[in-house]
Amino acid sequence: MSVRVRFAPSPTGALHIGGVRTALYNYLFARQQGGKFLLRIEDTDQNRFVPGAEDYIIESLKWVGLIPDEGVGFGGDYGPYRQSDRKAIYQKYALDLVERGHAYYAFDTPEDLEALRQKEANFTYNQFTRSSLVNSLTLSESELRARLEAGTPYVVRLKVEPDVEIRIRDLIRGEVVFHSSEVDDKVLLKADGMPTYHLANIIDDHLMEITHVIRGEEWLPSTAHHVLLYQGFGWADTMPQFAHLPLILKPVGNGKLSKRDGAKFGMPVFPLDWVGATEEDRFPGFREAGFLPQAVVNFLALLGWHPGGDQELFSIEELISAFSIEHISKSGARFDFEKAKWFNQKYIQASAPEYLAGLIKPLAETKGYSVSAAFLLQVVALMKERVTFLPDFIEQGYYLFERVREYDTETVQKKWTANTAVLFSDMMRFLEQIEPFEATNLEASVKQFVQEQGVKPGDVLPLLRIALAGTMKGPAVFDMAVALGREETLARLQLFVNTFNR
After folding, report:
1. Which residues contact 226 (CB under 8 A, 6 or more apart)?
2. Catalytic option among 87, 256, 259, 447
3. Which pairing describes strands 174-179 and 165-170: parallel, antiparallel, or unpaired?
């Protein structure tokens, strides 16, 4: 059977960056094995459903380039791929499991169960407590029939047998053993007819012919229930292989990276901006922070996996070729935002100028700058070795788009003399005549001019840079002059002289 894997998020809010890593590992494995990558939306918990979350998930996957072969928004032969559209399927299988003796009806009301939890803090509905509760294992056949015919609300629970060892062969962690005494009788079908995650994902994985379940380690304890369900349905021979991924850890301290860590550590932990209903439910994304999707993919791939060796920069094709579940670590991977920034710098530096110009064009327009494609290519050439994020092209290099807002006055005052204004006036007349107005010729001509004036280049060229950019930082001064053009360069020199010749 060919490999089939799925990414199955719940639309309960923004997709965490850890979820994107899970999708990435599924995608890489499917591509490496020549298989299929599915997107399934697990929306059985309608109380936690958040409008817009499903679209956010799909947009996030598209942004990082993890395009599903099948799924919600992508079609396929195993649909529907949204669990709320499969309700009738789950009800049928839940009742079949009851008939097989591996599940039972439970009529205990929420109030009854809450009262039990008040009496006993660690109360669990399981093989030890179910005999004293109201369910089809304790009711007579006539009592059960009467309740069902009367439409009395019920849930369907998994019947966990006593004294059973549940063994799981995890592709990352090796053999994992649970004892049934540790496993509760999970609700499989809720009173509203909707399945829980446990029932729905088992049925869906079976019907969609999923061969490998690659998901976060927080689901490892639930896998005991899932194995029992596969056995109860008689599907043990076609049960998928499991691989539980290590946690992504906080940058500092202990514990799993959470959505609140973004604000705490000043970094995004979501792929895209998320704007929820409240101010507390608003989070910045990697895309809007100015990350390239390729950099995010490379960064996430190495958070818990590495093929060995010293290579750190991988194209998606190289990741697919090198990927293997066996090289995924068992231990958690710390989220190093400085490393993420390093990846982004490297990818910006390696990207084609036309690609970068296309990305920064809308950023420039948002700032009110109306510039040509040719000028943006010049901006990219000047700034790409100096920036970390895409907005840096506009924000750090603002002086390429508008006049200088503030001069490095301290440096100017150190170098300004009584003759500086006259020297700059002469240099402006000189620049009016230079042909061609290109960097190499400008540099040679201006340096010769400075020499002929009997002054040191170090007393003039820094001031020329500050006149154009306001700062000693930035790209080569003559490259800037060419990008700005002769007219704008001369205008800035005149403004500079007017500002300081007082």
Report:
1. 198, 201, 202
2. 259
3. antiparallel
Percent of the chain with pLDDT over 70: 100
Indicate yes or no: pTM above 0.90: yes
Question: 32-42 as b/e, with b when 16 or more CB fall inside 10 Å?
Answer: bbebbbbbbbb
Q: Whole-angstrom Cα distance, residue 9 to residue 54?
A: 9
Q: Domains in the chain, ordered, with CATH?
A: 87-245 (3.90.800.10), 261-350 (1.10.1160.10), 403-500 (1.10.10.350)
For residue 364 the two structure tokens come to 């420039």
Question: CA 61 to CA 57: how far, in whole Å?
Answer: 6
CA distances for 374 relative to 265, 354, 365, 379, angstroms: 38, 9, 15, 9
Within 13 A of 417's CA, how many CA atoms are on the CB side? Answer: 9
3-state secondary structure of 187: strand
Distance between alpha carbon 291 and the CA centroid of its chain, in Å?
Answer: 11
State both tokens at 320: 């697919």
| Annotation marks residue 259 as catalytic | yes
List alpha helices for 76-155, DSSP H.
87-99, 110-119, 141-149
**Cβ-contact 30, 5 below 8 angstroms:** yes
User: What mean pLDDT do residues 152-180 have?
Assistant: 97
Residue-wise pLDDT for 81-133, tens only, equals 999 999 999 999 999 999 999 999 999 999 999 999 999 989 999 999 999 99
- Helices (H) and strands (E) counted in the chain, each on its own, are 21, 14
The whole-angstrom separation of Cα 476 and Cα 468 is 11
pLDDT for the residue 277:
81
pLDDT computed for residue 501 by the predictor:
86
Which residues have a Cβ under 8 Å from the Cβ of 312 and sit 6 or more positions away?
A: 298, 302, 343
Helix segments in 127-238, DSSP class H:
141-149, 197-207, 223-233
Amino acid identity, position 346? K
- Cβ atoms of 104 and 137 within 8 Å: the answer is yes
CB 91 within 8 A of CB 193: yes
| Ramachandran region, residue 143 (left: φ > 0; alpha: ψ -120 to 50; beta: rest) | alpha
Q: Can you tell me which residue has the tokens 């490095």?
A: 408
Asked whether 360 and 369 are in contact (CB, 8 A), the reply is: no
DSSP 84: G
> Hey, CA dihedral for 408, 409, 415, 418, is it positive or negative?
positive
Q: What is the DSSP letter of 242?
A: E
Q: In this predicted structure, what is the pLDDT of residue 402? A: 97
Give residue for tokens 């500086």: 420
